[in-house]
C-alpha cells in the first residue's frame, strides 16, 4: 500500500507533518512518498500539478493532501494557480465522490456562531459530486455576445452539465451512505430554474427506487442554505452537485464553529481517495506553528478506513483525537477559557501520546 | 402614479391586503390595480403570468408583489409553474437590480439562530443581479453528450453568462448604494473556477476606479457563505450575480432570525420596481391569518421611496413598524415570551393605527 503525501502551501506542510507522525506511530505496512503540489510545485517546477506529482498520485492507493494557495499567486494565469492542482487531481483521478462530515464536537459547542441547542450533537454528512457540473463543463471562455441583453458586447460564459450516469453514481453513493446512518437523504437542487438540476432531481428520484428503506427529500439550494442556519440538525445526508456542494459544505462546516476539526475524503470508482482537511491553506498563520492539525489527522483516519482497509487503525486515531479534546488541549482556533492552548506540534504530540 | 398589486398564492393575498390598507391610509395620489399571478393566475387563465397581468405590470410605476407557489403545482410543466411568473416579470421588465436588506431588529435579536453578540445591529445590504447569469443563459436543455465523462449518455445543461455592460450596470448600483452607507463593497465571485466570474471580478475592478472613496473587497462564494455565519457584521454591501445572490441572500436573511420582517426591491434602469417580501408563499400557513405582513408592508415603504418619490411616506411606514415592534406586537414567527401574539390582520391594524 502506498500513500502519496502532498503537503502543499501555507499551513499545509505543518499540519501534514503531524498527520504523518501519527500514521508512522501506528506502524502499519504502507509506504509514504512526498511530492510538491500547488504554489510549492509552481515554485519548484513551474506548474501547480507537475507530471511527477500527478503520476505519484495515480500510482498510490491514497493521497494525503494538506492545502494549496496563497494570495501571492492570485495574479498568475489561471492554469498556473495553486487551486488548479486540486481541480486537476480530482479530474485526472476521477474523484467524483466528496464526503464532508459537518460534526459538532461536544467539547467545542461553544465555538459555534449558533446557539448551543441548535448545534450540540450536529452530525451531517455532506456528499458533493466533485468531477462534473459547471466546474468542468465545456464550452467556457470569453466571446462577443450574439444574443441576450447586450448583443455585440464582450461576455464570459461557462457550461453547467450533468449526465445521467454521473448523477446515478453519486446518488448510489449517497443512498448507500445513508443506509449506514439514519436512512435519510436530502438531495439539493435548483430544479425550478435549471435544466441541469431538474434532470438531477428526476434521476435521483429514479435511483431512489432501489432504496425503498431510505427516505428521500428534495430541497432547493436557496432553501437548504436557510435550513442549515435555522435547523441544521434536521439534515442527515445532504447531497448535491459540485457548485452547490462547494457553497453548502463550507457553510455547514462553519456552522460547527470548528472547521479546523473537519476532515474530508474524495473517492473514485476504484476506491482510491484524496484526503484533506476541510479548511484552506491559511497563509496568514503559516509558519507560526499555531494551525490546528486535527482535521488533517482525522483525514488520515478516513484514509485508513476508506482506501487502506485499516478500520481499527482509523478508530485508534479518532479515539485519540477525542481523548486529547477531553483532556483540554486546544489550538488557538478552538481555544476557550479554561482549556489549554497548544501549538500544532504539541497537538500532534498529544495525539501521538494518546495512541 | 400607478401601482400594480399582485398578491399571488399562499399567504400572498393576506399579507398584500395589509400592505394595501397601510398604503390607503396614507392618502397619496396613486391608483392601485390588482391582478392575478402565479398559481392563482394559472387557475384563472391557464398561465402563471397572463398577458393582462404582464401588461398591467409594464404600464405601472411599481408592482407590489406577494408571493407565488404551492406544492400542488410541482407536477406542472416548467413554463406553467408559479415561479415562472416572477422570472418572467424580472425578464420582461428588465428588473436587473435586486436589493435585499438583511437587518436584525433590536427587539428580535433573540429570534436568530446566531448568538446575540454576532447578530445585534446587523445591517447588510445584499445587491443581487437579477436578469442574467445561469438563470436566463441560452442554450440550455437536454441532449446526448458528445464529450465529458460519459459520451453518448443523456445529459442536461445550462449556460452561465455575463456580458460587460450587465456587470457594469450592477456594479455602479452597488458602488452608488455603498456611498450612501459605509462605503464598503464585497463583490462575491468564483473567479478561481468560473470564466464568467473571473470576468465579473475584472469588470468590477475596472468600474471601481470611478469610486475611489468606496472600499472594494473580492470574496469567493464559498468563503462568503462561511463568513456570513462566522462574522456577518463584517459585511456592509454584499453584491454578486443571480445564482450566488439567490443562495447568499437567503442565507443572510435567515441569519437575522426574522425573515418575516425583510422586504426586497427589484429595479430596472427606468426606476420601475417590483417590491416583495423576502420570504415565500408559505402554503402550510396560508388562509390561517397568522402570516407576518411586516415584510410586505416594509416592501411598500421601499416602493414609496424608490419608485414613487414619496420618501416621507416611506419614513412614516418604517417608523410605524418600529413602534408596533416596540409596543410588543408579534406574529407567531417572531413571537417570544413576554410579547403579545397577534395575527396578520391585527398586525396590519397596529401599523395603520401607528400611522
Ligand atoms: C480551491 C477551489 C477550486 C475548491 C473548489 O471550489 O472546489 C475549494 O473551494 C474546495 O471546496 O475544495
Ligand atoms: C422562485 C425562484 C425562481 C426565485 C429565484 O431563484 O430567484 C426565488 O428563490 C427568489 O430568490 O426570488
TrEMBL record, chains A, B:
Annotated residues for binding of NAD(+): 280-292
Pfam families: Iso_dh
Superkingdom in the source lineage: Bacteria
Catalytic activity: (2R,3S)-3-isopropylmalate + NAD(+) = 4-methyl-2-oxopentanoate + CO2 + NADH
Annotated binding of Mg(2+), by residue: 222, 246, 250
Cell compartments where the protein resides: Cytoplasm
Record-linked PROSITE patterns: IDH_IMDH
Signal peptide region: none
Segments forming domain Isopropylmalate dehydrogenase-like: 2-351
Entry's EC annotation: 1.1.1.85
Quaternary context: Homodimer.
Known role: Catalyzes the oxidation of 3-carboxy-2-hydroxy-4-methylpentanoate (3-isopropylmalate) to 3-carboxy-4-methyl-2-oxopentanoate. The product decarboxylates to 4-methyl-2 oxopentanoate.
Family: Belongs to the isocitrate and isopropylmalate dehydrogenases family. LeuB type 1 subfamily.
PANTHER family: 3-ISOPROPYLMALATE DEHYDROGENASE (PTHR42979:SF1)
Protein name: 3-isopropylmalate dehydrogenase
Organism: Ideonella margarita
Lineage, top ranks: Bacteria, Pseudomonadati, Pseudomonadota, Betaproteobacteria, Burkholderiales
Amino acid at each position: 500500500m502506498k500513500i502519496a503525501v502532498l503537503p502543499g502551501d501555507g499551513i499545509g506542510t505543518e499540519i501534514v507533518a503531524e498527520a504523518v507522525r501519527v500514521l508512522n506511530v501506528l506502524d502499519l505496512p504502507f509506504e509514504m512518498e512526498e511530492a510538491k503540489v500547488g504554489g510549492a510545485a509552481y515554485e519548484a517546477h513551474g506548474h501547480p500539478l507537475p507530471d511527477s506529482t500527478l503520476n505519484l498520485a495515480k500510482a498510490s492507493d491514497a493521497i494525503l493532501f494538506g492545502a494549496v494557495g496563497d494570495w501571492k499567486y492570485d495574479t498568475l494565469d489561471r492554469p498556473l494557480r495553486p487551486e488548479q492542482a486540486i481541480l486537476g487531481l480530482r479530474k485526472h483521478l476521477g474523484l467524483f465522490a466528496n464526503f464532508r462530515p459537518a460534526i459538532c464536537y461536544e467539547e467545542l459547542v461553544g465555538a459555534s456562531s449558533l446557539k448551543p441547542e441548535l448545534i450540540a450533537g450536529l452530525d451531517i454528512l455532506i456528499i458533493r459530486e466533485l468531477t462534473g457540473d459547471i466546474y468542468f463543463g465545456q464550452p467556457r471562455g470569453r466571446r462577443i455576445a450574439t444574443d441576450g441583453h447586450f448583443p455585440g458586447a464582450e461576455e464570459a460564459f461557462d457550461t453547467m452539465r450533468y449526465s445521467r450516469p454521473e448523477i446515478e453514481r453519486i446518488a448510489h453513493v449517497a443512498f448507500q451512505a445513508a443506509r449506514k446512518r439514519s436512512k435519510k437523504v436530502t438531495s439539493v437542487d435548483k430544479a425550478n430554474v435549471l435544466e441541469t438540476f431538474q434532470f438531477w432531481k428526476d434521476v435521483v428520484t429514479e435511483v431512489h427506487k432501489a432504496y425503498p428503506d431510505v427516505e428521500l427529500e428534495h430541497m432547493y439550494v436557496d432553501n437548504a442554505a436557510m435550513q442549515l442556519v435555522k435547523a441544521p440538525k434536521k439534515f442527515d445526508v445532504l447531497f448535491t452537485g459540485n457548485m452547490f456542494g462547494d457553497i453548502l459544505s463550507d457553510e455547514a462546516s462553519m456552522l460547527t464553529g470548528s472547521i479546523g476539526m473537519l476532515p474530508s475524503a474524495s473517492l473514485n470508482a476504484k476506491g482510491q481517495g484524496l484526503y484533506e482537511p476541510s479548511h484552506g491553506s491559511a497563509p496568514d498563520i503559516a509558519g507560526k506553528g499555531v494551525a490546528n492539525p486535527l482535521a488533517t489527522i482525522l483525514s488520515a483516519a478516513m484514509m485508513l478506513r476508506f482506501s487502506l482497509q485499516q478500520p481499527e487503525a482509523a478508530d485508534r486515531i479518532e479515539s485519540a483525537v477525542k481523548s486529547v479534546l477531553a483532556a483540554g488541549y486546544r489550538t488557538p482556533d478552538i481555544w476557550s477559557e479554561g482549556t489549554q492552548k497548544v501549538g500544532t506540534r504539541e497537538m500532534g504530540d498529544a495525539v501521538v501520546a494518546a495512541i
